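Lab manual, section 2.4: Encoding a predicted structure.

Procedure: take the sequence of the chain (109 residues), apply the prediction step described in section 2.3, and record the output as structure tokens. A sample record is shown.
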Amino acid sequence: MSTTRFWACSASPDSSTTVAIGYGAEGHPVFWISQAPDEGPNREVHVAFTAADSGVVTAFHDRAVELGAESLHEPRLWPEYHERYFGAFVRDPDGNNVEAVTHGGRLSG
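Recorded output:
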């Protein structure tokens, strides 16, 4: 499963034993990636993660591209959504549209 390998680059080196990966804070996963056995490919999904600030959005985009994601939209303000919507979009190895967004605008400096 290429998405699992992509997003969990620091996971177990033996990826053949991975059943599911959960992401969250303080030991409480809130987002899971798993593969159903014997299932064909899924259609593209759009997943958005809330970031603490624009620096985190930019770091997400840079790291994802470094790991092989296709940049769909570089980090920027999206005033068509609202004046403080700052986001970046990438396509992961399975073709999913993955976004990092903060609603606090761009950091100054």
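Check your result against the sample. The radius of gyration is 15 Å.
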